[in-house]
């Protein structure tokens, strides 16, 4: 079982360290609010990933390839990413200074967990990844594959993913302290454009 756990640690690191929409949103919120909002987005996304992982490892991933389920979830995910992208661009071009902005600064992590979870759950292709992971574990273990080995794989992946949440949020917090305000706005705009690009990429998969 030890080799399965180590394999899961590495796969978890590769899965989470790859730049994507979640990291873009973590970076956007982190350069504004610091460690807490960046970490909250990461943890929220991890909760969504855990849900997809359990479904994929349980062997029910094929259900989410049915258009009646996949299409609405994908459309919702696209709309969320597009909204976050437009919001990022708006805040970069027209920085807010009113009461709502002051309240956001006082509670920098508010809503970030929910956004992170929604971003993950809005991408039903994640369950396809986890269905493949279940097959890979079975191929590695052969006759020893079973619920216990899949549980070990899940534990290893979640351990690696949680560690990455701390690392990513910590690096973003360090970057925030090093950036002057104009650079923060430029980076926020770049994150907005990235989120819009990820929305378009997710939408393009509707045709596949």
UniProtKB/TrEMBL annotation:
Q: Which residues cross the membrane?
A: 40-64, 71-89, 150-174, 186-207
Keyword Nucleus among UniProt keywords: no
Task: Report the superkingdom from the record.
Answer: Bacteria
Annotated signal sequence range: none
- Indicate where this protein resides in the cell: Cell membrane
Q: How does it sit in the membrane?
A: Multi-pass membrane protein
Write the record's keywords in alphabetical order, separated by commas: Cell membrane, Membrane, Transmembrane, Transmembrane helix
Pfam families membership? LysE
Cite a single GO MF annotation.
amino acid transmembrane transporter activity
Establish whether keyword Protein biosynthesis is in the entry: no
GO CC terms in record: plasma membrane
Q: Which PANTHER family does this UniProt record tie to the protein? A: ARGININE EXPORTER PROTEIN ARGO, ARGININE EXPORTER PROTEIN ARGO-RELATED
- Any idea what this protein is called? Chemosensory pili system protein ChpE
């Amino acid at each position: 079982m030890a080799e399965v756990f180590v394999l899961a640690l590495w796969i978890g690191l590769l899965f989470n360290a790859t730049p994507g929409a979640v990291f873009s949103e973590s970076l956007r919120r982190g350069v504004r609010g610091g460690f807490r909002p960046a970490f909250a987005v990461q943890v929220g996304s991890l909760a969504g990933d855990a849900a997809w992982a359990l479904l994929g490892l349980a062997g029910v991933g094929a259900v989410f390839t049915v258009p009646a389920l996949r299409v609405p979830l994908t459309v919702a995910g696209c709309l969320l990413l597009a909204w976050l992208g437009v919001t990022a661009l708006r805040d970069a071009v027209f920085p807010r200074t009113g009461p709502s902005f002051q309240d956001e600064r006082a509670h920098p992590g508010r809503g970030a967990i929910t956004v992170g979870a929604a971003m993950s759950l809005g991408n039903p292709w994640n369950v396809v990844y986890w269905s493949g992971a279940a097959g890979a574990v079975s191929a590695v273990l052969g006759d020893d594959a079973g619920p216990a080995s899949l549980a070990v794989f899940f534990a290893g992946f979640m351990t690696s993913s949680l560690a990455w949440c701390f690392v990513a949020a910590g690096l973003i917090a360090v970057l925030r302290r090093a950036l002057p305000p104009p650079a923060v706005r430029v980076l926020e705009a770049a994150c907005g454009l990235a989120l819009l690009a990820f929305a378009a990429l997710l939408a393009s998969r509707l045709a596949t």
